Amino acid sequence: MRRRALEAALEIIDDGGLEALSIRRLAAALGVNGASLYHHFKSKEDILVGVADLVLEEVRDIGEPDASWREWLPDNARTLRRVLLAHPALLPVIVASRSHGFGAHLLDTSAARLMREGVPSAVVMPLLDALAAFAVSSALHETRTDGPGASAAGEYPALAKAEADRGLSADQIYDLVITSILQAIDTAVEQQRARWLSSIPVPADEPR
């Protein structure tokens, strides 16, 4: 019942936005009494948390077991952006996910695999945070509705020309930036490892 309710709530949100979801409407969609939903959820906010966690399930696949973090992590970041773009009304809820604590098991799985592959723990969260932050900002940018439209071309001719002559798609820009993030973190990983190795005391009877 809980999962069916979350799936129905997601349909309502995708069709009408967050404001369209109510206990009464969800109960009607499920053909149940509204009071019965409180056996599974504490409140509407609890439903939103569950819906956000539901859509993030697709991001939990962290790739083939033998793939290196340089391969599966970019794919993971692309999947996160695709999920965010597929459910734009949920963006405000997912942005707040860290403060609510949901999605933590997803982060824990990724963090554990990164550390198993030799990524120093000190750079794991900066790496995951950087990719998540860019995925969210990219999705927010692509789904914004307050930018100048085609009718404003006369008022903003330079912007209109730049948009018409755009040389890179949003997907291409996203790939370029996450590649740059990974390269920068990879460099930081090697530097951190080098500092850690240089800090290990060398026995007096061994040559330095």
Elements, N to C (H/E): HHHHHHHHHH
Q: N-to-C terminal Cα separation, in Å?
A: 66 Å
Class based on secondary structure composition and strand pairing: mainly alpha
Apparent shape = flat
Gyration radius, in Å: 22 Å
Question: What is the fold's blueprint, element by element?
Answer:
Elements: H1 2-16, H2 23-30, H3 44-55, H4 69-86, H5 91-95, H6 97-100, H7 104-116, H8 121-142, H9 157-164, H10 170-199
Helix pairs in contact: 1-2, 1-3, 4-8, 4-10, 7-8, 8-10
Task: Report a brief summary of the structure.
With 208 residues, this protein is mainly alpha-helical.
Structure write-up:
With 208 residues, the protein is mainly alpha-helical. It is built from ten helices and no strands. Helix 7 crosses helix 8 and helix 8 packs antiparallel against helix 10.
